[in-house]
């Protein structure tokens, strides 16, 4: 038996087949999208917990609700995850920091600070400021901003130090003043003086002297 389809019937069958194919693609992508959203949510929860457990909340800033994404990467493949340790030889170059946000009209400030200077047991220099970039447009990265404090390589001498990246949303461009000193920098006071409010994102890593890590 031979089946023959006229042109209208052919297009009708083709349309149904295409619709069915697109529907299955939609279902598959929907599952991927749901999985992606779940992964992002779980990652955000773990990051918030790490900030509390690592006493970043308390020692450096007050409790806040993250509202903007921020990713920090050293040497193109060493991503910073809160509470994880990075060896000093991996953090000698300036990190690549990407931020989210709604649009490029918003401006952000990135701060990198060490609340454990010169040692965790006696942090009388708390905090030590390692880096500051202001006027970063949303949805871009730190290279688009204005570096007002150059990157100083973290060199922990005694104990395990926490190095904290904080992201603040500015009220306007060129509204953040250059801090007076790196030593005894206070994130809370600086934020108040420059009307930055609470952070919109934060992440930190631990580091210690290389030979100290080998002895552990």
Automatic annotation (TrEMBL):
Pfam families for the chain: PBP (PF01161)
Share an example GO biological-process annotation for this protein.
flower development
Q: Where are the transmembrane segments?
A: 6-26, 33-57
Keywords, in A-Z order: Membrane, Transmembrane, Transmembrane helix
The reply to whether Transmembrane figures as a keyword in the UniProt entry is yes
Protein family membership: Belongs to the phosphatidylethanolamine-binding protein family.
**Name by which UniProt lists this protein:** Uncharacterized protein
**Gene source species:** Lactuca saligna (Willowleaf lettuce)
Q: What is the lineage of its organism?
A: Eukaryota, Viridiplantae, Streptophyta, Embryophyta, Tracheophyta
